From TrEMBL:
Source organism of this protein record: Nitrospirillum iridis
Pfam family, one: MraZ
Record-linked InterPro entries: MraZ_dom, MraZ_sf, SpoVT-AbrB_dom, SpoVT-AbrB_sf
GO molecular function: DNA binding
Protein name: DNA-binding transcriptional regulator/RsmH inhibitor MraZ
Domain named SpoVT-AbrB: residues: 4-49
Keywords: DNA-binding
Length: 78
């Protein structure tokens, strides 16, 4: 599969994905593909994989927030 694909928008602003990309995303028979913009990049995810990994992403967020909270607690150095 090519690393880069040129995608175009139709008149309604929808992106038509080529069959090889839909196949790679396991989205041939699916009703949705998840588009994620992060760090200046656009990511395409299979909706099935997105849902399957959702709890792991929530836990990663909880862990990151907990680490920030621990690093910003005042120390009892008196």
């Amino acid at each position: 599969m090519d690393r880069y694909l040129r995608l175009t928008l139709d008149a309604d602003g929808r992106i038509v994905l080529p069959a090889n990309l839909l196949s790679h995303l396991q989205a041939i028979d699916a009703s949705a593909v998840r588009l994620v913009a992060r760090d200046g990049r656009l990511w395409l995810w299979s909706e099935e994989h997105w849902q399957a990994r959702q709890m792991g992403r929530f836990q990663d967020l909880v862990d990151a927030l907990e680490a920030v909270r621990k690093n910003h607690l005042p120390t009892d150095a008196s």
